[in-house]
Amino acid sequence: MAPTRTLEFTSVGVVGAGVMGVGVAQDLAQTGHHVVLVDISDNVLERARKEIRNGVRAFALFGKSAQKVDVKEVLKRITFTTDYARLSDVDFVIENVTEKWPIKKEVYERIDPICRPEVVFAVDTSAISITRVASVTKRPSQVLGMHFMNPVPLKPMVEVIRGFHTTPETIDTGKRLLAEMNKAAVVVEDVPGFVSNRVLMLTINEAVFLVQDRVASAADVDKIFKGCFEHKMGPLETADLIGLDTILYSIEVLYESFNDDKYRPCPLLKKMVDAGLHGRKSGRGFYDYS
């Protein structure tokens, strides 16, 4: 299954081995890139290895591409490590850590002196400002947003965000990497939530309010969206897929950024996250996956 085309980005650093980081790493490796997947936990990296193995098999079953994938070949292209210094030779970095500013800030302060000066940083985020991330690096013109959708290998498009200092050359560099991943890009400006999540997070949060207020069950809320609008998934199924903790953090960023009550997080969403009901990744959210 070795790709025959010439790649501009032979080695890509992926920081964070959560749901999105795993998907990005799998997609990159499937499209022929060597990946340095960094996380702070060996346990998380071991889980990531298993999830990528399962993800490649699922891609082979459900992917629309005629491309054949081999689990062993894909895994051979990925270096699983807790050593950030392994990012010193990569050509591009995609960061995917949790949606909490102190954690993201620490990551960029750590990788900025390690990576070569010409390397572009892509922030995979639902809502955090790209301009704010760029401000903690010495390369603000080389920082852009890449909002991947889950599951990454099956999604053909990425929302690309232009920060205040992001240059056209950086946007073009990001587009070229996405093209190597067989993905198209839509470029938008840097406002909290960008386009997709400014709409989606409000929809999900309001759907949770409907359940909290006993207007309808989670199943019936989703049934209306699927049956009436022909959506493939309802808002609460989507919330479980993304992760309820990620939904809450994103809503909190929007609430803080706009100072507008329409972004206030639903108390039921907070309670479920506090209870460890994070959706599919924890085995239970609005639905039971155990």
Automatic annotation (TrEMBL):
The keyword Zinc-finger does not apply. InterPro entries: 3-OHacyl-CoA_DH, 3-OHacyl-CoA_DH_NAD-bd, 3HC_DH_C, 6-PGluconate_DH-like_C_sf, 6PGD_dom2, NAD(P)-bd_dom_sf. This is 3-hydroxyacyl-CoA dehydrogenase NAD-binding domain-containing protein. It holds the Pfam family 3HCDH. It comes from the Bacteria. The keyword Nucleotidyltransferase does not apply. Residues 193-289 form the 3-hydroxyacyl-CoA dehydrogenase C-terminal domain.
